[in-house]
Every structure is written in C-alpha cells, then in structure tokens.
Amino acid sequence: MTLGEAKVRTMKLVGEYSYMGKCLDGSESDTADWRLRLPELLCDAQRMAAEVCPIWKRREIAHFPPRNRARTAGGVMIHAEKDIIVEAAEARAFSFRAMGSFTAYLEAAGELRWQVLRTISGDTGGDFRHFCGRIEGNPRHLRLRFAGSYRYLVRDAALYAENFPSDADIPKDSKAVWYPAPKDYYRFGRVLRDGQPCEGYRWYLDGNLSIPNEETGVYVLEYGAYPAAIGENTPDDTELEVEDCAQRLLPYYAAAMLLGEEDPEAADRLRDVWSAGIGELRTGRAARQEHIRRTETSRRRGIRSIMKG
User: What is the three-class DSSP state of 302?
Assistant: First the structure.
C-alpha cells in the first residue's frame, strides 16, 4: 500500500471520499484540515504498528580492529606510588582512559634516555575520560608512563602501529569495539558471524553492540527498525514499510483520530477495529516467536546429545 492509497482509505472511513456516487476532488475547505493532518497520523500509526510487526533490517559489520601492541596486563590498573609503564615498538598512536587526577608522559626511546614527546594531565573526577592522539614521525620504541605520587585509575591503555586519519578514528577500547546502534533501531534480533549464529558479543538495551577485538570476522546485525518519518512533503507514491497485515489497519487509527471530536461514537468504533487488529497481530507474533524458540532449543539439545554420544 502506498501513502496515497492509505489517505484514500482513511477518507472513505470518515465518509469524505464521495458524495451521491461521485468522488470528491479533494479541494473542499471543510476537510482541508483533515487532509493536512493525515500524513502525521499515518506516520504515528505506522510507527506503532512497527513495534508489533518489526521492519527487519540487516547491518553488515566488518570487524577487523587494529591490534594493541602494548605489553600490558590490560583491564583496570591502579596507580598509587610507582609509575605504570605501557610500551611497544614502532607505535603511531596512543589511547587510554583515566579516572581521577593523573599525569601521563608519552615518551620515545633515545640513545641514552627516554625523551618526553607529550605530557597529558588532568582531573576527570569520578568518570573515566578518554585520551588519545597520533604520533608524528616514526619512533622505534614508545611508552606511556603514568606517574605521580597519588592514586588514580587507568584502563584500556593501548599503543597502535596503524596510521589513523584523525584522532577520532583511534579506538577507545583496547579489548573490544563499540558499534553504535543504527539510527532507525528499535528492537534487537540476532547477530551472525560469517553467516552463522555466534556468541561472545555484548548487546545493550539501547542497541549498541560490543565485539571483542580477537573475535574477528564479518558480522551481520539483524534488527527491527522504525519506519521513515512521513510528513506533508512525503510523496503519495511512497510505499508503506510495515507488513501488509499491518498496513490495512493504519487508516482506522487515522480515521479515529480525525473523528475524535466531531463524531466520538464513530471514532470509538474505528479505534476498536485498530486496537483489535493490533492485538491479534501481537498475540500471533508472540505465539510464533515462542514456537521458534522451542524449536531452536530442541534442535540445539539434539546437536549436543549427538556430539556427546
């Protein structure tokens, strides 16, 4: 169904499509406000329908992050009195997070002593703050030295050999890569790695995805998306994005909203059709998802039994 067809169906439901067997030309002043409200109402209806019948999309992620060349224990390091040293050969960029009042020196190995290339200091309070930068030239050996006689925390200290286009391209996490959720993200589906279901990643409720650096491969995120917004300038030939079974319900919602003040009883009847239809879709979806989960669980148990046997 196109947006134009949804508008026509809505006008039919509110009784403003024809008069005495003849189609109205759409220029009547008494329905002009309704026609102006239609795009946004259909936009709202489609968005609500997408929360029940997700618009599934796929996002490909080529996960081959740069390798941290620093010799370090990793994780969170606590600086108290002794310096913390993180070093590597032929590094071209550095990155770390610090919490508290800290002082760090980026140093290059000289013939007799270490030479300070950059001094980084500050007070981040109670939050980890990210610090990074590119290194000019090509020093053969570099190190980050966290100094001072006070207590602070350091994490994700890294030295990279790659040339990055800008400081913003330097990874913030030395253990995993954080992939922001797509702008139209609504619901998580699943993650595939090289075409197969996988584990090891971390998915967050806001849709962000974290993948360990060592788990390289081509990933595909399957997610439920919100439809594109519909406005007054959206062409009538635009195809609605939700499934056909949900598209037929959108005009009922729009019509109910249009008649809310003029004819409350008719609006209630139209709203009941909308609510009942959405309820049936939600119930059907839940039943199918439960069946899929049970089937998948049984299949995995069967594979485990075969492997154990």
Answer: helix
Token pair in block for residue 229: 């917004």
Three-class secondary structure of residue 78 per DSSP: strand
| Helix (H) / strand (E) containing 46 | helix 32-52
For 183-238, the DSSP string reads: TTEEEEEEEEETTEE--S-EE-TTS-EEEETTS-EEEEEEEEEPPPP--TTS-TTP
Q: How many C-beta neighbours within 10 Å does residue 88 have? A: 19
Give 8-27 pLDDT, tens digit per residue. Answer: 899 889 887 566 566 766 66
Q: Cα separation of 159 and 70, whole Å?
A: 5
Tell me if 34 sits within 8 A of 16, measured CB to CB: yes
The total of other beta-carbon atoms located within 10 Å of residue 79's CB is 21
Q: What is the pLDDT of residue 303?
A: 46
pTM, full prediction: 0.72
- Can you give the pLDDT at residue 19? 62
User: pLDDT tens digits for 120-148?
Assistant: 999 999 999 999 999 887 778 999 999 99
Note whether 168 and 118 are within 8 A (CB).
Answer: no
For residues 161, 166, 168 and 173, what is the CA-based torsion angle, rounded to 10 degrees?
Answer: 0
